[in-house]
Amino acid sequence: MNTMLPVTLHSDATKLLLLDQTELPTIEKFLEIDTREDLYEAIKKLRVRGAPAIGVAAAYGVYVCMRKETYASLDEMQKDFSSLKSYLASSRPTAVNLFWALNRMEVRFITECTLKTSTQDSVLTGLLAESKAIFDEDQKMSIAIGKHGLTLFSKHMGIMTHCNAGGLATTGYGTALAPIYLGFEQGYDFKVYANETRPLLQGSRLTAYELNKVGIDVTVLCDNMASLVMKQGKIDAIIVGADRIAANGDTANKIGTSGVAILAKEYGIPFYVAAPTSTFDLETAIGDDIEIEIRDGEEVINGFGKRTGPEGVKVYNPAFDVTASKYITAIITERGIITHPDRESVTSHLKNK
């Protein structure tokens, strides 16, 4: 269903190709990246975004950046890897898939270096193989989430989304949008309501863009319309993605998500989170321990070049909030469904492969 991969490797494996999502929905522009500075900027400025896509970009980026260098020894190569990993990890603090992918690349790097036959070329070959594996797993993950999620939906439903967790946030069907895409392919008649998602409008610019492009019925809502539309009975279910899920099921997602979940509880509407198991962070006990990224206030009062607030005014611009697990009906992963998520059910789900 995803006709434009937001992140992939150039055919000759020398560059990372990224769909510049800051230009959507009006311009479809691909960036060719082969330096660590450009990759950092692309992640930081949301040219690539969505937790799974960021992870894939980081994995491919490690390989692309290191293959350009010439090292005097494997020790020098390892020092550069550590520096590159730390640099990319500092780009965005909340989405755990970034760190998960970098850690996987580090494990592969160390494994390749410890072989008796290790050379710089063999290490690079291993890094390329690992990054491709992360890409392939991401595609399989989204289809599996879609199949599990679709079991929770009937053929004629109004579904609300918040932010973008579709093909543009992964390399496949997405997470939250995966059941919608699969249902559409099977003749389900969904009516999707996409919250615009202030301040960067990922709902209207990205979710509505990709759903509309394939012919799925989608309506854009201002964020503050959510309560009214729920009260009017237009919404049968809500599904969102996640950037980090704590050990007790508390979930960090785009700012505004927790308010939607609280409203859903009030109106008796099921609230689902769709995310791969790589988004769980068992070292983070509860949602309050998740570091929330604070972004530039100009995104709020001078978004997209249009000033809507006075110069010099103070702005608070957290990129994410945390939805307590008590408001989450179920979490959908590539392994299945966690109903009424808590520490016990999350731990059990992650142990049972």
Structure description:
By secondary structure, the chain is α/β, with parallel strands linked by helices. The protein has 11 helices and 14 strands. The chain has a 7-stranded mixed beta sheet, sandwiched between helices. The chain has a 4-stranded mixed beta sheet with strand order 11-8-9-12, with helices on one face.
List the topology elements.
Blueprint: E1 7-9, E2 16-19, E3 30-33, H1 36-44, H2 51-67, H3 74-89, H4 96-114, H5 120-150, E4 158-162, H6 178-185, E5 191-195, H7 202-214, E6 218-221, H8 226-231, E7 237-240, E8 244-246, E9 251-254, H9 257-267, E10 271-274, E11 280-281, H10 298-301, E12 320-323, E13 330-333, E14 336-339, H11 343-351
Parallel strand pairs: 4-5, 4-7, 5-6, 7-10, 8-11, 10-13
Antiparallel strand pairs: 1-2, 2-3, 8-9, 9-12, 13-14
Helix pairs in contact: 2-4, 2-5, 3-4, 4-5, 5-6
Gist?
This protein has 353 residues and is of the alpha/beta class.
Features:
alpha/beta, Rossmann fold, four-stranded mixed beta sheet, 11 helices, IF-M1Pi, EC 5.3.1.23
Give the class from helix and strand content and strand pairing: alpha/beta
Distance between the termini: 27 Å
Biggest sheet: strand arrangement:
6-5-4-7-10-13-14
**SS elements, strand count:** 14
**Helix coverage percent:** 40-55%
Gyration radius (Cα, Å) is 20 Å
CATH topology of the largest domain: Rossmann fold
One letter per element, helices H and strands E, the order comes to EEEHHHHHEHEHEHEEEHEEHEEEH
Largest sheet entry? 7 strands, mixed
CATH-scheme architecture of the largest domain: 3-Layer(aba) Sandwich
Q: Mind telling me the CATH class of the largest domain?
A: Alpha Beta
Number of individual domains: 2
Total number of helices = 11
> pLDDT under 50 segments (min length 5)?
none
Overall geometry: globular
CATH superfamily descriptor of the largest domain: Translation initiation factor eif-2b, domain 2
Strand-residue fraction?
A: 15-25%
For the residues shown, what is the average pLDDT? 96
